[in-house]
Amino acid sequence: MPTPVDIAPARGKLGILLVGLGAVSTTTIAGVLAIRKGFSKPIGSLTQMGTIRLGKRTEARSPRISEVVPLAPLDDLVFGGWDIFEDDCYAAARTAGVIEPALLEKVRPELEQIRPWPAVFDQHYVKRLDGPNVKKGKNKKDLAEQVVADIRRFKSDNNLDRMVMVWCGSTEIFATEAPAHADITAFERALEANDPAIPSSMIYAYAAISEGIPYANAAPNLSGDIPALVDLAARTGSPLAGKDLKTGQTLIKTIIAPGLKARLLGVAGWYSTNILGNRDGEVLDDPESFKTKEESKKSVLDYILQPQLYPELYADLCHVVRINYYPPRGDNKEGWDNIDLVGWLGYPMQLKINFLCRDSILAAPIVLDVALFLDLAKRAGMSGIQEWLSFYFKSPQHAPGLYPEHDLFIQLMKLKNTMRWMLGEELITHLGREYYD
Ligand SMILES: NC(=O)c1ccc[n+]([C@@H]2O[C@H](COP(=O)([O-])OP(=O)(O)OC[C@H]3O[C@@H](n4cnc5c(N)ncnc54)[C@H](O)[C@@H]3O)[C@@H](O)[C@H]2O)c1
Fold first, then answer.
1. What's the pTM value of the predicted model, to 2 decimals?
2. Cα–Cα distance between 366 and 217 in angstroms, integer?
3. How much is the average pLDDT of 274-283?
4. Ligand 1 touching residue 253 (CB < 6 A)
């Protein structure tokens, strides 16, 4: 038997720091509170409902993940966060309009106690937003220090044992790696010089990572995915995960595309369009924020279909992604996909998908799982990029020189095998010859 990884027990309270108390964050927090009180079920959450097969099929051992992996229990979670609006978490959840008022009322006192701390915000990076609850500082280094002070205060006020931070703020404008991101010396110099290459989300990421706190990015902007912060995370022991939660249309894309490729069906075109009416939709209506999202959504098919290996099937694929802001729908997004397929002898076929989903209902269990798994990783001494959490992201953060794994089923296998490895259980290869020898 392999040796299990030494994992510190999940003792005491775990603080979950959420940057941005918008639709995703409030749906996560209100959901956890409602589940804790027995009003609802944690549907969609692998940490709460998933099982894991251990050993051979003949052993019939498939416990719940939460029974064998030492995760923080929901009762031990304490939420806190920042926003540019002053609304408490109850008011913010009402504005988001995701969870029905009757259920929100049942957790109202707890939600009202969560009031956002003033945010690090600069409209340069999110053009469609502006709000009053914003920090002032000498420079970006000073702002980062203010975030660290918030984190430490939250920890002592709530007597927390550990913390995790998840960026659930708006999508920032498109940016690529700059000299300021190369290493921590350049990054810290750039913080002091107010370099425009450092958006608000990187300031929060820097603050968390410098404190050794695990950091995840639910949005597609660069944030923690730069060499300076990855190196810092290795030094401070912070596990990292991102970017951009895999929900809605991209989730379906990464379910369907591996199946088409498995059967060697060609794809001539994939047209994806969405209508969305929440604040995220409004932010994404700005072309610069949309460009960040578009890059994240479009890379998925290239990696799954591997046109370099199957040029006759996928080299000429025309992939178009559109998001249109349409207020009447609120958080209830509607996505349409038209897929032009090519079969035997080149005969064309079409597949149409119309997904009437609820964005934040799909996102909330992911935020919960990612937070709990990052805390597990920290207690297991795993720092830096956590590739095993690719399962949850549209643009999985990955080591330089490696391509990211986008196929949902390979991602799930990677995640579960990582847990088996932690537990000292045999990895499952699905070879299965032993049953026939
Ligand atoms: N809902 C989903 O299914 C989904 C999926 C993938 C990614 N995301 C991403 O997650 C993020 C959150 O989505 P949402 O639907 O909750 O959006 P939202 O607009 O409802 O919430 C974002 C919140 O972040 C706040 N904010 C923005 N910049 C901030 C800053 N610098 N500091 C503190 N607060 C800040 C905003 O005021 C707002 O309240 C977005 O970037 C979105 O693209 C969402």
1. 0.96
2. 11
3. 85
4. no
